[in-house]
Specification:
With 135 residues, the chain is of the alpha+beta class. The chain has three helices and nine strands, in the order βαβββαβαββββ. A hairpin with a 7-residue loop joins β2 and β3. It starts with a strand and ends in an 8-residue tail after the last strand.
Length: 135
């Protein structure tokens, strides 16, 4: 059985967050969705649990980081091509994300990044493993 990955992120407004990620082409698992949370499907075994901040706080005794003021994590998603990187990041920016860094092009790897509407950092990249420089 494959290991499943669930990333849990606090969000300020669940409805707006779902609208944002829907605009990027993501879908959600209704079985894990209510007024406090939703399960965004990234891939067959990769999911992002988007939890309203108050609900997220019930899972930890530590303060919840304000992602608009500090970085708690950077989530990297791979894409099938440079074009797909640009398409997804352009959709994110059009849906309200903010540009994080300039695109990075190392020849064998291309990536762009953005902060979603809650301030969470996302990097989208394409990697041509056959072109990785050999030492």
């Amino acid at each position: 059985m494959a290991t499943k990955i669930f990333i849990n992120l606090p969000v300020k407004d669940l409805k707006k967050t779902v609208e944002f990620f829907t605009a990027l082409g993501f879908t959600f698992n209704a079985q894990f969705t209510d007024e406090n949370a939703t399960c965004m499907i990234v891939d067959e075994n990769i999911f992002v649990m988007l939890l309203v901040e108050k609900y997220f706080q019930t899972f930890t005794s530590k303060p919840v980081a304000d992602a608009t003021k500090s970085t708690e994590v950077i989530t990297f998603l791979s894409a099938d091509s440079r074009q797909k990187v640009d398409e997804l990041v352009d959709k994110a920016l059009a849906a309200g994300a903010t540009k994080n860094n300039e695109p990075q092009d190392m020849g064998w790897m291309y990536q762009r990044s953005f902060a979603d509407i809650n301030g969470h950092m996302w990097e989208i990249g394409f990697m041509d493993e056959s072109a990785i420089p050999q030492e």
